[in-house]
Amino acid sequence: MSKVAERKARMRTDLIESAERRISEQGVARLHARELAADVGCSVGTIYNLFEDLDALILHVSFRTLKRIDDVMEASMDDVGDADAVSRMVTLGRTYCDFAVANSNLWAALFEHNLPADYPLPDWVLEGQLSLFRHIEAPLSFYMPSSDRETVGRTARSLFSMVHGMVSLSLERRISGVNLDMLDEQTEFMIRTFVRGLKSDQA
Amino acid sequence: MSKVAERKARMRTDLIESAERRISEQGVARLHARELAADVGCSVGTIYNLFEDLDALILHVSFRTLKRIDDVMEASMDDVGDADAVSRMVTLGRTYCDFAVANSNLWAALFEHNLPADYPLPDWVLEGQLSLFRHIEAPLSFYMPSSDRETVGRTARSLFSMVHGMVSLSLERRISGVNLDMLDEQTEFMIRTFVRGLKSDQA
DNA sequence: ATATGAAATGAACAAAGTTCATTTTTCTGG
DNA sequence: CCAGAAAAATGAACTTTGTTCATTTCATAT
């Protein structure tokens, strides 16, 4: 790689990291091109040479966030030992809640930042999410032995949506969701009750 | 009420209605003061005489949306006849999904419009939501006979969050939730399975 | 060393929310 | 009905912020 390409690559990662830090600390709404440029020591124009626009940069940060969520979920499954399937599902739910609460601004940028209606979505935005669902599918399929892959997958998405919705309304100041203090506990209750429903269906 | 107060009140409702129409048609991100002023035949300054800022106007529209959601949920319970409790819960869930899909821009303005972090929230924003939860609590309490009010209320919020999360990720282009075609059906499955879990808990 | 093309620059532009000095309208007392 | 005062409406100007692009700076190959 040539000097110039190296420099370009370093500036790209510098910008992404600076954007990530600013989003994490202040929220995506307070991410501004001029401040980013000052952070990394370049001009505003350079940002636009390296990224289509600020939304593209935000998408890159969001992809990293998605990866981090995937990592903590993966790690939580490594740590869980030989727990039964439903406990694994609870662990995944709690891990997701904990990450969202601890990194609420990054999490909000990933899920709640509004792109223009016609903004082109890179493929990797959707692909990165499949891995999240797969974590859930593994233990869930244990309780849905007679369902096809697609049904299990759809239910995994629904369970993800459930936990996501609980987090979303809990964190949203303007909406009165489940109290933050009880979020983990209530998430566990919801997952365990749902799984009991799956089991009683087979019986 | 004096002439001037009448005029003022009419202009206020005109502005709210115009904002509602524009949000409904184009989304909250494309609501602009100059266009609103042109709609109702006043100057931009007048908007700021009647509302603190555009966010305040958006909050008024959101309150109407909340009221409309409450109304359709209420109406769905009037229509449901003597169905059993779980069917009532399913009806509430489907009604919510249908409203969100049919009025996605209004729904998004209510739940996803980001206010400044320190923006003061009027009381009625949170109060209006209590009614939504109460619709769910009534049939839900049937399956949680030995739980206290608070636990039932928290579980009602969680179920609301579940359906809300499913709708949210289904409508979000950038996130791969449950396919929109299957949203109603999948919502029903999730609610029925959860309730079965509640029942098997008692047994 | 020079020419050439790529990259960086930042002033300028555009879009949109918000303000406020000025103008217009309304109200009130005589 | 009029004059003056108070209230309301006005819209030009200001502010902020994303984005562009003509110009300058730099790196590389011959």
Main sheet characteristics of chain A: none
**Strand and helix order of chain A:** HHHHHHHHH
Q: Largest interface, by Cβ-Cβ below 8 angstroms: which chains and how many residues each?
A: A-B, 49 and 49 residues
Helix content of chain A: over 70%
Oligomer: homodimer
**SS elements, strand count of chain A:** 0
Which spans of chain A of ≥5 residues are poorly predicted at pLDDT below 50? none
Strand content of chain A: under 5%
Indicate the mean pLDDT of chain A: 95
Q: Output the structural class of chain A.
A: mainly alpha
Number of distinct helices of chain A: 9
Distance between the termini of chain A: 62 Å
Dominant shape of chain A: elongated
Rg value of chain A: 20 Å
Keywords:
homodimer, 203 residues, mainly alpha, 77% helix, DNA-binding
Describe the fold and architecture.
Two copies of one chain form a homodimer. Chain A is mostly helical and 203 residues long. Chain A is 77% helix and 0% strand. Chain A is built from nine helices and no strands. Chain A has helices at 3-26, 33-40, 44-50, 54-79, 85-102, 104-112, 123-143, 149-171, 183-202. In chain A, helix 1 (3-26) packs across helix 2, helix 4 packs parallel to helix 7 (123-143) and helix 5 runs parallel beside helix 8. The first copy, chain A, is elongated and about 65 Å long. The model of chain A has no long low-confidence stretch (mean pLDDT 95). The interface between A and B is large, with 49 and 49 residues. The structure holds a DNA duplex (30 and 30 nucleotides).
